[in-house]
Fold each of these.
Amino acid sequence: MGVGTAMKHLSSFISKMEKEGLSPMVIDTFSYYYKKVVEGETGLVFDRDIDPVHKDEIKDANNLGSWTAAGKKAFKHAVRITLNGGLGTSMGLTGPKSLIKVKDGKTFLEIILQQAEHCNVKLALMNSFSTHEDTLLALSKIDPPGFPLVFLQHKFPKILQEGLSPATWPKKPELEWNPPGHGDVYTALYTSGMLKTLLDEEITYAFISNSDNLGAGMDASLLGYFSENKFPFMMEVAQKTPADLKGGHLARQKNGRLILREVAQCHENELSAFEDIRRYRFFNTNNIWINLKFLNDLIKKEKTIRLPMILNPKTLDPRNERSPGVFQVETAMGAAISLFEGATAVKVPRSRFFPVKKCNDLLAVRSDCFVFSKEKNLMVNPAGILKNKSDTIKIDLDPKYYGKIDLLEERFKDGVPSLVDCESLAIEGNVFFQKNVTLKGEVKIKNSKKSRADIKEGSIIEGDLTL
């Protein structure tokens, strides 16, 4: 199909977005990306166009203690923005992931509210069209002393891979749309009026993080370093380990500016270089600091925020592999680092990066392997075996029996085992746990029978166990 033929579909996309009430800025942004799709652009970033970032180029957060006092003074001019658009689909849920009970009987949302209250900073939630109503209902029940600000992420229409026309799915029209990635946060701040509201209230500094990462609190030393040096943008990065091979990495463009490359932007022939932790040693934790005045000036100058495109091939109905193939246009929040002259990055400890993506992660966080600091941030238990290690406990649960949250909770209904002295846990087969079980060292439990096996109350397990 020729470019001209495909471009005829653009008017259909524009009409569809206008009917949904999307703002002209969002429509213009999608149109910009759609033209790139039609022209055959894939959003790939090649090794030849970037250079690795060396360890001596990046400040270490452990050495920023002298900025703490300045950061505490800046709290009154700061906002914590939490990305709350995700559903817990990877764990078998259909509602907001932030409403999962994650620790001490509290949900992600309740803990984030406590973290913001502890620092006495404003909290804003960016909801998606999938999480908005459920989140508002949950907030009305929690009734926090400081009700958070709320704004909505936009949505983009899905593009049929065959013909590049708008995807249609009459039996479930909401599947015709996709969230445009967390890179939409900047446009959503502007079009919702939230950016103006914050600036009018003399809120200059924003810390943005995912709702499922409870290690990412509003850190005074990082805020002090960011605010006093008048950086427009700062990305928190961590040292890559073999567990982070797919994490988007930091690099430097030939013009000297920093850039983020996601795995979806890497050509398959260059995956080995992408995953080389000695070459690309820093990965993006998706904890971002941004000066809202700089953001506002950039949008006014450019009339939009145009981040590097990520083109995700999917099926129209994610649960139906036989549904038509579509492209989802997305962008990454961290990619904005390339838009700001003078943007920087800072290396943070792994304690600021404990995302809960799967049931394996949820079990670890629910256990005594993790505790809360006095600042209400999640941290590895200092009394445990992992206290002096850079990595956290490795958990590998049989997805057939533990891959969904209801299956996980059924097998640990009497409580999560003590993991404070456990380095790794692997479970194969159908295993149920009674209360007060303790696991130590490197533990492998296997049940090869079709029937369930039970770990008895009070058991202490070390090493391999075949049931």
Note: Residues 373 and 379 are 6 Å apart (CA to CA).
Amino acid sequence: MSNSRTQVAIIGAGPSGLLLGALLHKAGIEHVIIERQSPDYVLSRIRAGILEQVSVDLLHEAGVGDGVSQGGTIHHSIELVFKNTRHPIEVTKLTDGKVVTAYGQTEVTHDLMKQRQRLGLDTVYSAADVSLHDFDSASPQVRYVKDGVSHVLHCDFIAGCDGFHGVARASVPKEAITEYEKVYPFGWLGVLADVPPVSSHAIVYANSDRGFALCSMRSMTRSRYYVQCPLSDKVEDWSDQRFWDELRKRLDPDMAERMITGASIEKSIAPLRSFVAEPMRFGRLFLAGDAAHIVPPTGAKGLNLAASDVKYLSSALIEYFNERSPVGIDHYSQRALARVWRAERFSWWLTTLMHRFPDSAGFGQKMQEAELDYLVHSQALSTSLAENYVGLPLNFAS
């Protein structure tokens, strides 16, 4: 058995774990990242692609901002489609100049992995049988098996950045954690295709009597589109042609006419849920990102919430090690959850407003259309949408 020691053990090499590692390295704090999957598997996961300014700033702070600066596409507005008519919401004007940036999570992960490899930082991929121990004491341990050899990593703190199905949250005693969840009665069928986006300057949200649709992008030559579908549907039920035909029917006529279609390079169906685990600290174990919370993708908050968690957590750990102050780690859970719940509220509201629910035909559909009509004609409500969409400031909860 191999024994080693570090200051912070990070579980998970997704964007939140990698970003935390980059920030800790910059502050001179020793850490090791342990990931149960291979690097290729981590990079194969197709996820979000809209970054708040807070997230972009954090990438620059971590020293990996060149990719988003060169490859990201800035958006100044969003467009809402209902009753076959498109309505722009001028996000930048309503938020004193704030924007969002289209840049895929895969690209964020690649940028962080490339930096980590260049710096020669310690990352254990394909780790088996990962388990967390004694995080309620002053001497936590992470145990894992790599290439048939058992390892024990002794550390001061453990950061659980290993996602919704990871070992970190599952290691917490059930009586010490409270979980809140809402499962939505539909999914999103997503298609990635190497075609120009139907709107190069805005994300398009469509509410129709056939269901919700979303038009997003990864670059000026790669688009990411979604349609709401029943949870009982299977990917093989949807040919490319059926998807494009259905998407067109949910957009306004002008946009449907000028949409360029092509062969899908990735197609999947994802269920929608809202989920929060409280608290986000258990002794010397901290949860961050999807390990602690899930939002429906409607509000584009998943990756951005993970980034804000990492900012709070990295600042707290840096304060602990470099200033010998426990204040940050003692307040981490409270600060992170305040922002999490605001993002959960926004994502729930936008999901409820834009989707067709089993009971929303007739009266329910009319109520959605009435609220959408009020939204696009009310500066106050449009401003509320815009400021939540671009992301609340990190100190908003304090």
Note: The first helix runs from residue 15 to 26.
Amino acid sequence: MRHLADWVELDGREEEGGGSILRHALGFSVLTGRPFRIQHIRANRPQPGLRPQHLHGVRAAARLCGARVRGDSVGSTELTFEPGPIRPGDYEIDIGTAGSVTLLLQAVLLPVVMGPVETRWVVRGGTDVPWSIPADYFEAVLLFHLQRWAQVSFRLFRRGYYPAGGGHVEFRAQPHGAPPTPLRLDGSGRLVRMEGVAHASHHLRSARVAERMRESAVNALRRPPDVPVSVRVDYQETASPGAGIVLWAVLQDVDDPTVEYRLGASALGERGVPAETVGVRAAQALLEELDAGACADRHLADQLVPFLAWTGGCLRTSAITPHTRASLYVARQFLPEARWDVREDGLITVTRP
């Protein structure tokens, strides 16, 4: 075992007190080579401790670097993780439930984008489920911003809704290899277009659920009226019925037209909630992000904080959420040498030595 001075100690009760503290810790540990111990895992959740979803993330990160792990069992509230060198290769994971494939990938995203090797991930589980990153948002918004550091690709072969899951995705990452450029997402953008995907299972095709979500969202987004809005419809055969919509706005930097930003928003269908209401909810959420005038929406910010911590730079988000504060908490423990300036107006700046 390494000397205790090398270990990062984390408290799962900090900030939002959920699974994101563990996922971000796994990513930082694999990339930095620093072992960590976390106590009070998911202390602020109705069922504290590790759930099967989180165990798959731990084991995915452990496979990536040959880590030694203790405490990796359902219900465990304490875990230790000692990483080894990052290993290239193909990784296949079947969560077996509707556990989120994108949250699992979040646990390894930092090291596979910023690390030294190429990896391919095939993951089966939930692609569009509550309290997680929708698959289309993951591809169109998050990976769009990560491609500055790596060649990344994402394929959605099959959607998986709650409760059966059964979704199937493939993610590839090949780091560019050059020293990473600092993240700069604090400029001013001009809205040039809005895009999206309204999706539903084949069970709901006859009720035109996806079309109704799209039509209501497009009507709500026609502000200003001269900005193109394009939302495609996607029906798939799925193990469980479900529906949802993901929207994103493309902005062009006013000082450098070659630079683009993307803001996103989404909504999931619910039993008893009209499809039109779901579409409007997503549209209103996207319009709120645009009205804030930031370069990163509130959900993107907490996902980008680890990359910001590693590269330095700045980003401006619409709101500093509890999830963002949890991400900041973990980053500070692993990279204590970095200097942070977090302002209530949403501007986060990191200076690396």
Note: The two ends are 29 Å apart (CA to CA).
Amino acid sequence: MNPPNILDQIGSRLAEVAAQSPARDIEKNVRALATSAFARLDLVTREEFDVQRALLERTQRQLAALEQRVAALEATLGAATD
């Protein structure tokens, strides 16, 4: 017998046994349970989170700029009425 052939046969037999073992079924069940649990949660992807964060940062910058404009207009209006 050829030793590499024996090793290949042993490897294939072990793979068959592992595929048929209860541990494999348990792993599949745990994955299905975790997937189901995550599906029920209100989660967003990292990409969606990053988009919303960038939008919030942009909105905050615009708000700060508008607050400065309002303060400047109020100062101008206050100086004109005095």
Note: DSSP finds three helices and no strands in the chain.
